[in-house]
Amino acid sequence: MTITIYHNPACGTSRNVLALIRNSGEEPRVIEYLKTPPRRAELVDLIARMGVPVRSVLREKGTPFHELGLDNPALTNDVLIDAMIAHPILINRPIVATPLGIALCRPSERVLDLLPAPQRGAFTKEGGEKIEDETGKRTV
What we know:
- By secondary structure, this protein is α+β, with helices and mostly antiparallel strands.
- The chain has three helices and six strands, in the order βαβααββββ.
- The chain is 24% helix and 15% strand.
- This is Arsenate reductase.
């Protein structure tokens, strides 16, 4: 099975998602998208397969979002995608693709709906929030 995560190791949510994938027994293909950004066609395809508006994949915090004027509602999807290609930090993360679907996994437990195998044990987020108990039952 192929699971891909577009990952930023500096992001706690992204680290939690990667850990949840691994806790299900899968070793995903990890793409550190700041080091290896997706090509334009790949980003367009990811967004289309997620079935979400382009704006929902834009990250504002800690990015040049406002400096680039990306809050302007008149900007087209093409302009927004071009900005994400030019500045990959604008791509919100983590994006996870599995045979069951593709999604921006914020909050991190959203990845659980994309994983074909259940968690193999209890899981607690880095911040201390318990997601799965010892029996594999979701607590959130």
